[in-house]
Amino acid sequence: xxxxxxxxxxxxxxxxxxxxxxxxxxxxxxxxxxxxxxxxxxxxxxxxxxxxxxxxxxxxxxxxxxxxxxxxxxxxxxxxxxxxxxxxxxxxxxxxxxxxxxxxxxxxxxxxxxxxxxxxxxxxxxxxxxxxxxxxxxxxxxxxxxxxxxxxxxxxxxxxxxxxxxxxxxxxxxxxxxxxxxxxxxxxxxxxxxxxxxxxxxxxxxxxxxxxxxxxxxxxxxxxxxxxxxxxxxxxxxxxxxxxxxxxxxxxxxxxxxxxxxxxxxxxxxxxxxxxxxxxxxxxxxxxxxxxxxxxxxxxxxxxxxxxxxxxxxxxxxxxxxxxxxxxxxxxxxxxxxxxxxxxxxxxxxxxxxxxxxxxxxxxxxxxxxxxxxxxxxxxxxxxxxxxxxxxxxxxxxxxxxxxxxxxxxxxxxxxxxxxxxxxxxxxxxxxxxxxxxxxxxxxxxxxxxxxxxxxxxxxxxxxxxxxxxxxxxxxxxxxxxxxxxxxxxxxxxxxxxxxxxxxxxxxxxxxxxxxxxxxxxxxxxxxxxxxxxxxxxxxxxxxxxxxxxxxxxxxxxxxxxxxxxxxxxxxxxxxxxxxxxxxxxxxxxxxxxxxxxxxx
Length: 601
Hints:
This is PKD domain-containing protein. Pfam families: PKD (PF00801). Residues 183-244 form the PKD domain. 10% of the residues lie in helices and 42% in strands. The chain is mainly beta.
């Protein structure tokens, strides 16, 4: 709350009057809870209107004085009252706002209760009766109205103490009884910089209709700079009716409790970004590579945008394998991506899909990788195809891709014998039969992207945390080398920059009481990770909304509860590498900053 300025020596009578008035009001009404309550109206000026719990709004003001008191609370006029032509005049919009009275405007026509005005002609009518000239006037861009006419329009009581100081008492506007009511509170009125603000919402509808939308202005869960902040909520019900804005003010002062970084380590949710300008200066964690399961990754991304039907990539596997395909339809007609499995044995072979994630169709490349990973981590698998000798069948078939849209698929397969796997792009009118596939050309690589078979589909790493913060670098090609393999169609050695499709099996020891975040180092990143923390298994969408873009704005992944934390990470197709995983020590209850607020309404 703002404190009133010391009274001017010549205003003793007015001060005594106001003190007596406030004393009387305090006997009639309980103290206001939750801080100053104000109502922002569509046509208000910068002044905030009081929305009191009292039935009346009482405004005390003095001509040519910027101070004004609304139900005893000090405020300031932007355009002070004036004496114009012998009349005491108030700025129309500010006065209506301070009194909590709605204005309706259409062009130059303005309606306030029983008062109608034409702000261009400076004319007024009260319940249809024309008012004398001079009742309305303009000073610059501000419309002024006679205080006595305003009082008549509102059926208000007007008292003139000394001809210069006036008290106007009016009933607050009853409003529209059908509109919903916005309501919220905060746990305190005054906060320290960096202290969490707990908002509790309790809007309602007069007839019990659902509140379907909320619009906030000025709301933050924490304020780091001292000052006074205004927070406003407007709600909409299921019938499309909107409430009046409901506003509270918050004051921030005193010694800081948290910085943006320490606050985020306490309160940020997985998937939230937070600032850390020192992130690139943290030392690298000591990584211990471990023996990994040996099965191949068949990667198809070249030509990334095929312009004709054809075979994109082909190789044979026995046992487990991971498939990753990333292609855009460059044909001038609808097309589909297939992965075909053909039995190369002289006996029946089972092909089991253990995990599958796909995104198709979409034209937004970053969505391709993220949605595929979220589906991949969520899939249960279990689908099995039995192939007779020489028989082929599709283990994956995309939806129809319109020209320019793309598909990303990642699939783990297990076979009981040797099978040939073929990535095929086919125009929608052609079926993926053996007769059709045999006539398709092998499409040449585009020279910019990669295809091939890579023997290391899993990279197993162990880290024991020591001094924090520390970072683990993935996908940079130096600290974390790129996997190498062979293009089975050309026999050439190939290198998979970024290790897309490689599953990083990361075990972190000494993790209890730490937080881990992802810092994008190569540009836009949008992906997902799977976490196992003791009995908890959770897939995290990174970031929660939008894209991670800046190295110094890492995205929170998890706060570890167990000493051992397991992270499954696959670099996301369509996103940029490298990334860093940053490990921090989280804030403790007994550390600087005090008790952590745990209530989350």
